[in-house]
Every structure is written in C-alpha cells, then in structure tokens.
C-alpha cells in the first residue's frame, strides 16, 4: 500500500510542508528512516535526527520550527504522537480488512455470519456458530460448537475457541490463545487416584477485550469464567475456571490466576504474578511483577513481594534485606558484649 503526503494529511487533518505528492509504503523510526518511509517527531531529544533522516515524510507538531535545512516532507499536526498512533490504527484497519471465504476451510451448515466476514484457509466453524459483521477468522483458527462472536472481532491464526464461548464486539484474540478449555478440576477417590470433575460451564468475553498469544482462559466448572469489558491481557497468561476479571483491568505476561478468584475494575497487574484461588481483589489495585497474592486485597492497595505486602513497606524493608548480613553481624557483636559484661 502506498500513500501520498496529501492523503496522509487528509486523514490526520494536517498541513503539508514540502512535496504533497511524495509517496510512502512503510513506517520507520526517525533515526532509521529510509526513502519511501513515514516517521514522526514527538520527543524533543530526537530533534537532531530530523535534519539527517532519509524518511520521505515526517509528522511533526505545528509548533516545530526547523533550525536547519531538511529534506523530508513535513506534515504539521496538533499532536504528532497521537496522530502517528491514529495512522497506525488506520494502517492496521486497511491491512487487516480481509473479506471472503478462502478454501479449504470448513463451516457447518448451521453456522451463520454477518456481512464482510473473512474465513481464512483451514479455519473451522462448528455447529450453530454465530459470527457478527466484519468478523475476521484467520487461517487454522478453530471455532467450536455454539460459539458466538460479535461484530468487528478478529481471531488470529491458530487460536482455539472451545464450545459455548461467547465473545463480544471489537475484541482481538491473538495466535495460539486457547479459550474455553477444561478447568483444572480433579478430586481424589478412595484409593487416592484423581478423578476428573466435568467442566460444564463456559467463557464469556465482553466487548473491547484484547487477549495475547498463548494465553489460556479455562471454562467454568459451573456458570461462567468472565472477562469484562475493556480488559487487556498480555501473552502467556493462565486464567483458571470461574475467574472473573473486572472492566479495564490490564495484566502482563506469565501471570497465573487460580480458580474462582474475582479481580476488580481498573487493576494493573505486572508480569509473573501468582494469585491464589477463591480470593477477592478490589478495584484499582496495583500489583508489582513477581508478586504472590494469597489473601483478600482491598480497593486501591499497592502490593509487592511474595507473599505480598504493602508496596511502601516492601521498598523500605528491601533496604534492610540488602544489609541483613551486616545487621546480623552487629547484633552478634552486641550479644557478645552484653554476655561478656554479665
């Protein structure tokens, strides 16, 4: 895809300074710009690069005034960073705007779908699947029986969505994600052998949810595992059966959440966090990376450590952790003095 400076300025409501007909077909960092690429300047520390960049077009703030000659064509906008982000979103929409049914693929006779749907090669739609408008199912994706997927949702290559799952509008499920596999439910019999407990629930994913590659969300034993509106999940996260994650919570990679835990709204959870089962995590909680949580957490708490303690207390305590050998040595010397004087 190629775009002229004039076309890009029209999308961004900006003004062209230079050649309006110059074309670009790729994006670049300003310091790595090459002919035919588009870049932007938002951070002042990168200003020197605008005089040497080979990028054909550079998006800048309207307040920018060059102090030396420049070769790149400028597009002046109110906010260069936001405009570049808007352009990235537009570029993705154009790039991913696939429509049609590729072969070989399989769709059950009972499957239904709306307008402008894309089914990639080797994708599979089970019985009674319902797809909304503008849904994109990329190659080798599996959509099980009775799955519902809302409008403008994208399922990338190789994702697996098990039966009964409900996915909302404007969601993104990345490659390798597995939604709706059985929860980890086993009970020992009289001989101590573990017997599987049937997992008969489902997974509900509300609108505007992003799910990273290789993230797994287990179906409920009974009822539903629920991912609320606006949740953003990184890669390689494990969410167990009957978990509920509140609106607009974000979770970083390699976090594990055990069964039946409820996490509130607007939480921020770092990477490699471990959360035990049957807990309640309040709203607006902040959890640092590698924290282990085994107790109820109130609204607004900030946690660090394993087991987790208050973030401020952890930071203060860590100073003493580092000095612990010296502290122990001092205590031993004091004990010797006290014992010697007694």
Please give the share of residues in helix.
Answer: 10-25%
What Rg do the Cα atoms give?
Answer: 27 Å
Query: What's the average pLDDT?
Result: 94
- According to CATH, the homologous superfamily of the largest domain is Hexapeptide repeat proteins
Write down the oligomeric state: single chain
Number of E-type strands:
40
Main sheet strand line-up: 8-11-14-17-20-25-28-31-34-37-39-40
Beta percentage is 25-35%
Distance between the termini: 88 Å
Number of domains: 3
Unreliable spans: none
Q: What is the CATH C level class of the largest domain, in words?
A: Mainly Beta
The biggest sheet amounts to:
12 strands, mixed
Name the overall outline.
Answer: flat
**From the coordinates shown, what is the CATH architecture of the largest domain?**
3 Solenoid
Given helix and strand content, the structural type is alpha/beta
Number of helical regions:
4
At CATH level 3, the topology of the largest domain is UDP N-Acetylglucosamine Acyltransferase, domain 1
Report on this model:
By secondary structure, the chain is of the alpha/beta class. The protein has three domains: 3-95, 3-Layer(aba) Sandwich (Udp-n-acetylmuramoylalanyl-d-glutamate--2,6- Diaminopimelate Ligase, Chain: A, domain 1); 100-314, 3 Solenoid (UDP N-Acetylglucosamine Acyltransferase, domain 1); 317-342. The chain has four helices and 40 strands. Strands 8-11-14-17-20-25-28-31-34-37-39-40 form a twelve-stranded mixed sheet, covered by helices on one side. Strand 39 (302-304) and strand 40 form a beta hairpin. The longest helix is centred in the last third of the chain and has 18 residues, at 324-341. The protein is flat. The N and C termini lie far apart (88 Å). The mean pLDDT is 94.
């Amino acid at each position: 895809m190629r775009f002229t400076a004039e076309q890009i300025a029209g999308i961004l409501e900006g003004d062209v300074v230079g050649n309006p007909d110059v074309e670009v077909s790729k994006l670049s960092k300003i310091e790595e710009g090459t002919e035919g690429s588009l870049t932007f300047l938002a951070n002042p520390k990168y200003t020197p690069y605008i005089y040497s960049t080979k990028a054909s077009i550079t998006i800048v703030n309207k307040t920018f005034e060059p102090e030396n000659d420049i070769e790149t064509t400028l597009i002046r906008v109110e906010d260069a960073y936001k405009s570049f982000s808007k352009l990235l979103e537009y570029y993705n929409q154009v790039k991913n705007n696939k429509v049609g049914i590729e072969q070989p693929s399989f769709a059950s006779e009972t499957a239904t779908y709306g307008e402008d749907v894309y089914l990639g090669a080797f994708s599979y739609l089970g019985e009674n699947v319902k797809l909304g408008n503008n849904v994109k199912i990329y190659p080798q994706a599996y959509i099980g029986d009775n799955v519902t997927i809302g409008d403008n949702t994208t399922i990338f290559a190789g994702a697996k969505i098990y039966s009964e799952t409900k996915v909302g509008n404007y969601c993104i499920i990345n490659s390798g994600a597995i939604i709706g596999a059985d929860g980890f439910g086993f009970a020992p019999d009289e001989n101590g052998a573990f017997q599987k407990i049937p997992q008969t629930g489902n997974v509900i994913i509300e609108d505007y949810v992003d799910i990273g590659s290789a993230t797994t969300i287990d179906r409920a034993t009974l009822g539903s595992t629920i991912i609320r509106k606006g949740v953003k999940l990184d890669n390689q996260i494990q969410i167990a059966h009957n978990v509920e994650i509140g609106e607009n919570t974000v979770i970083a990679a390699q976090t594990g959440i055990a069964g039946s835990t409820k996490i509130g709204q607007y939480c921020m959870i770092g990477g490699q966090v471990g959360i035990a089962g049957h807990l309640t995590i309040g709203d607006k909680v902040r959890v640092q990376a590698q924290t282990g949580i085994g107790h109820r957490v109130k609204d607004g708490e900030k946690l660090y450590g394993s087991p987790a303690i208050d973030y401020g207390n952890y930071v203060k305590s860590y100073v003493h952790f580092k000095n612990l050998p010296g502290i122990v040595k001092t205590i031993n010397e004091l004990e010797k003095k006290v014992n010697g004087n007694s």
